[in-house]
Input
Amino acid sequence: MSNDNTKIASAFGAITALNQSVVLDVARADGGVIWITATSVTATFTVEGSFDSTDGVNGTWFTMAASPSNSTNLYTQVTSIVLTAAPTIFWTFRALGLSKVRAKATSFTAAAALTVNMAAHRSEV
Output
């Protein structure tokens, strides 16, 4: 049996305007995490997945759920990440079968750029 959990994909990028996104390759991943760093921001991000995107832009995209780390209910999921201050939590998502996942700014007002960080993981078999 092979232990194939050594490859971890990651992506990060500065968001400075509406409709910008950070894209993560999740083709070999089971799930991932999104965390956002900012000092002063009002923004909304939509978490989107694609089965057929090859570059993070093309392909068919759909809204998917993410779970906030501060939830006391394991089954709490959101389809939009809404920020009204500097974030102090992260969001997890499932990625089975997807090729790409992106966090896309669907509303954005910030004094300075914010950074979206994403990482994918593969569970040990």
About this structure: The longest strand covers residues 100-110. Residues 10-120 form one domain. The mean pLDDT is 85.
